[in-house]
Amino acid sequence: AQSVTQPDIHITVSEGASLELRCNYSYGATPYLFWYVQSPGQGLQLLLKYFSGDTLVQGIKGFEAEFKRSQSSFNLRKPSVHWSDAAEYFCAVGAGNQFYFGTGTSLTVIP
Amino acid sequence: DGGITQSPKYLFRKEGQNVTLSCEQNLNHDAMYWYRQDPGQGLRLIYYSQIVNDFQKGDIAEGYSVSREKKESFPLTVTSAQKNPTAFYLCASREGNQPQHFGDGTRLSIL
C-alpha cells in the first residue's frame, strides 16, 4: 500500500539557518513526488515536484528537494530560512488517480 | 486568473442538519477531490471524481455525499450522519499526472 511518512511533527530553526524536512514514501512503482506548503487557514501551495530525470529538483521560494530511490526519500531543503517560511509542510506521492499525503511538519522560525 | 474557489470560508452546522460546501474551478481540470484536514492527521480523502457524472469514495466517505453534474463544480454535502464534522475541508483539482491545485478551504463547525 502507498504511504508517506514525515517523521518530524514540528521543527524550530533560527532565521538564516539551513533547513531539511524529511519525507519517506512507500510505493511499488516510480513515484510522482510533491512538496506543498500551507499557511494557517489557507489551502496548499505547490513548492516543487519530481516526475523523473534529475533527482535534485528546484522549487519556488528557494526550496529544493532530492529524490533518493535507494532510501525511498524525498527530503526538502532550504539553505537559509526566512521568517516568512513558517508554515506547515506536506510531502505527497501521486499514485494513479490519487494522492497520498504525509501528516505534515510544522515549521517555526525564531529571530 | 484560473483557480479553485471554495465557499463559504466558514460554515456552522446545527444538529441533524445537512450542509453543502461549494467548490468551483475554472482550470478545465477533469479530476476533482475533497479532503478533510484535522490537526495532526494530514489530509484524508473523502471523495474524488475523474469525470462528470462519476465519482468514487475515498478513505472516509461515510456521512458525506457529492455530485458532479458539471465539469467545473464538485459540491460536498456533510450529512447529519457525519457525527464529527468539525474540520477544515479542502477541495482540489488535477489534470492528468500533474500536481493537485487547492482551494483556500472551508472551516466547518458545530453549533
Describe this structure in words.
The complex is a heterodimer of chains A (111) and B (111). With 111 residues, chain A is mainly β. Chain A has strands spanning 3-5, 10-14, 19-21, 24-26, 32-38, 44-50, 56-58, 64-68, 73-78, 87-95, 98-101, 105-110. In chain A, the strands form three sheets. In chain A, strands 2, 5, 6, 10, 11 and 12 form a six-stranded mixed sheet that branches. In chain A, strands 3-9-8-7 form a four-stranded antiparallel sheet, with no helix packed on it. Chain A is globular, with a radius of gyration of 13 Å. Chain B has no helices and eleven strands. Chain B has strands at 4-7, 10-13, 19-25, 31-37, 43-51, 54-57, 64-66, 76-78, 87-94, 101-102, 106-110. The radius of gyration of chain B is 13 Å and the shape is globular. The N and C termini of chain B lie far apart (36 Å). The A-B interface holds A 9, 32, 34, 36, 41-46, 49, 51, 90, 92, 94, 97-99, 101-104 and B 4, 6, 31, 33, 40-43, 45, 48, 50, 56, 58, 88, 90, 92, 97, 99-105, 107.
Give the tags:
heterodimer, A: 111 residues, mainly beta, six-stranded mixed β-sheet, B: 111 residues, seven-stranded mixed β-sheet, four-stranded antiparallel β-sheet
